Each structure stands twice: as C-alpha cells, then as structure tokens.
C-alpha cells in the first residue's frame, strides 16, 4: 500500500457531481494527482474547469497564493474511461446512491486497479458491508464520507466494513488529514453517525411543515436565528439534494424499524417524484430561478 503522504500519490474520483468535484478539489490542493471520471459525457472535464476557475478567482481576490491555485489545477485530469484510473493508489466513489450500481462499479474497479490500491465509497447511508459484500478483496475497502460542500465542511467519517483492515483505516485517516479534513472513525451502522444523529433535524422540520404550522422560510429562520444553526433544515435539504436526502431518510427510517422520529413525509417524496430536488434542479423547498432563494410554490 502506498504511503498516503507520498509526493506522487494519485487519487481516482468516480462521479463528477457535487461531491466528486469537491473531493477532487481538496485532493488537488493537498498535492495529490487526481483523475476524475464520470459516465456523463463531458462532466469530468467541466468539473475540472470549474475547480480551476474557482481557485483562480480565489487567487485573484488574494485569498490564496496564485502558484498554489495554478499547481492544484494542474493536478486535475479528466479521465475518458474508468480504465484510466488503473494506476491510482486510492479510488473514491461518489456516484448515484444505489447499492447495485455501486456494487457493479466496484466490481469493475477491482479488475482495473492494482492489488494494493485502496477503494472507498462516499455513500451517505448504504452499509459499507453491503457495498463490499461481493468484492474479491473487501479488506482494502471502506467508507470515506465527506460532507457538502466539501471544501467548507471539515468533517469526514471513516467507516470500516466488516473486513476492512486496520492498516486501511489508518491510511484513509492519514489521507483525510492530508486533504485538510478532520477524520472521525465511525461504525458501519445505518446513516453512520452524522446521518443518523442529524436525521431528526430534517424529519422534525418536515413534520412541522406537513402540519402547516410554519413555512420552510420560517422554520429555517428559527433554527438559524434562535438556535444558532448555520443553515436551516430546508436550505440544507435543498443544498444536499432531495434525490440524496429522501432515500437516505427512508433508509435510516427503515433500518431503525420505523422509529417515528426518523419518518419522512408525503411532501418530501412528492418533491422527489416531481424533480423539485433543490439547488441542482433550480427549485426545491425554495426557488433559485433568479439566483436568490425565494419561497417555492
Ligand atoms: P450528483 O448527482 O451531484 O453526482 C453524481 C455523479 O455520478 C453524476 O455526475 C453522475 O453522472 C455520476 N454517475 C452516476 N453513475 C455513475 C457511474 N456508474 N460511473 C460514473 N459516474 C456515474 O450526486 P452527489 O450529491 O455528488 O452524491 C454522490 C454520492 O455522494 C452519493 O452516494 C451520495 O449519497 C453521497 N453524498 C452526497 C452528499 C450531498 O450532500 N449531496 C453528502 C455526502 C455524500
């Protein structure tokens, strides 16, 4: 296994959406060569360009040295095929939250990467043991769960599955620190720690909304201005994406044998069905049509 502090360390990131882009950015800033792959045509290249643009803007504003921004951008490479990740020391997956799709991706990856490469999943809630259940070498696989937006959120959950070796947990912990994160080792339980402990923040707010006690804007204002949370539950769900937080909520609820504190609502599901996903679709609990967050119809 490669030393996670090695100068030439290379990281493969699969999935160039919100999370994959963020992971690629912090890795490039940590001095790591990044290869980013997405099945969506042009998505990986667009993601690399977006990161480079944001870093160069930060440098122009005097928020970071220009050479650091330039060097980090030069470490980003869009891969044309999954096979281009063959030489990577570590591969982190940040694709759609679907057990079968993730399993089949890891089956492909196992055939591509070297025998001592590490594999990790950024899943929000799927059991690491279930993703790894069909792997040939689950001992080199673990969860590495970042939070959105990755460059701002320092926490990362390191989640060993039932077969993960201690050396792999240690290596992913070292890697997380190199990425400027604060790693926390957590158990492979439903929702891990953050999405279990924090779930009721969303479900209580959804219940209050369903009971028509208050609007999303009012509930968010109370949580921000009265209780001191940085974001209200609805703006947070719009940032996460309803296509991510609805299945996570449903999964954690089912896994807790129907604990009513963790139950979602019909409106939450309806928003998924009508593709009102939040910021990524332009409309969720709020409307982002003109750039500002306004109450959604
Ligand atoms: P996203 O929808 O923004 O991006 C997913 C990307 O994966 C898309 O670009 C899609 O084209 C690509 N993709 C889908 N299947 C693929 C495949 N087989 N091979 C390669 N690329 C593929 O999703 P997001 O929000 O980045 O989430 C990704 C993962 O991270 C999910 O497992 C999610 O649960 C997890 N996560 C999401 C968080 C959030 O706040 N959005 C927070 C922490 C984890």
TrEMBL record:
Statement: the UniProt record of this protein carries the keyword Transmembrane? no
Identify the residues that the record assigns to the 3-hydroxyacyl-CoA dehydrogenase NAD binding domain, covering every copy.
11-189
Task: Give the EC number.
Answer: 1.1.1.35
GO biological process annotations for this chain's record?
A: fatty acid beta-oxidation
Domain 3-hydroxyacyl-CoA dehydrogenase C-terminal, which positions? 191-288
Q: Which UniProt keywords apply?
A: Oxidoreductase
This entry's Gene Ontology molecular function terms read:
(3S)-3-hydroxyacyl-CoA dehydrogenase (NAD+) activity; 3-hydroxybutyryl-CoA dehydrogenase activity; NAD+ binding
- Name of the protein described by the UniProt record: 3-hydroxyacyl-CoA dehydrogenase
């Amino acid at each position: 296994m490669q030393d996670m502090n090695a100068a030439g360390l290379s990281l493969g990131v699969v999935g160039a959406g919100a999370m994959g882009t963020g992971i690629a950015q912090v890795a490039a800033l940590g001095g790591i060569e990044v290869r980013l792959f997405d099945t969506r045509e042009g998505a990986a290249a667009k993601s690399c360009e977006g990161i480079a643009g944001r870093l160069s803007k930060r440098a122009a504003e005097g928020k970071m040295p220009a050479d650091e921004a330039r060097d980090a951008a030069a470490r980003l490479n869009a891969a044309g095929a999954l096979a281009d990740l063959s030489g990577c020391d570590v591969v982190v997956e940040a694709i759609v939250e679907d057990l079968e799709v993730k399993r089949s991706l890891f089956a492909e990856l196992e055939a591509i990467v070297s025998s001592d490469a590490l594999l990790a999943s950024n899943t929000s809630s799927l059991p690491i043991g279930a993703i790894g259940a069909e792997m040939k070498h689950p001992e080199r696989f673990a969860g590495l769960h970042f939070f959105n937006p990755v460059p701002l959120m320092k926490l990362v959950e390191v989640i060993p599955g039932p077969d993960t070796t201690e050396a792999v947990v240690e290596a992913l912990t070292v890697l997380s620190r190199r990425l400027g994160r604060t790693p926390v080792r957590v158990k492979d339980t439903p929702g891990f720690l953050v999405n279990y402990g924090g779930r009721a923040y969303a479900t209580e707010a959804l219940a209050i909304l369903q009971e028509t006690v208050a609007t999303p804007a009012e509930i968010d204002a109370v949580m921000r201005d009265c209780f001191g949370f940085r974001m209200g539950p609805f703006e947070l769900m719009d940032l996460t994406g309803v296509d991510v937080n609805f299945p996570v909520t449903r999964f954690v609820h089912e896994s807790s044998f129907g604990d009513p504190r963790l139950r979602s609502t019909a409106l939450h599901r309806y928003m998924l069905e009508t593709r009102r996903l939040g910021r990524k679709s332009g409309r969720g609990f709020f409307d982002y049509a003109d750039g500002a967050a306004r109450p959604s119809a």
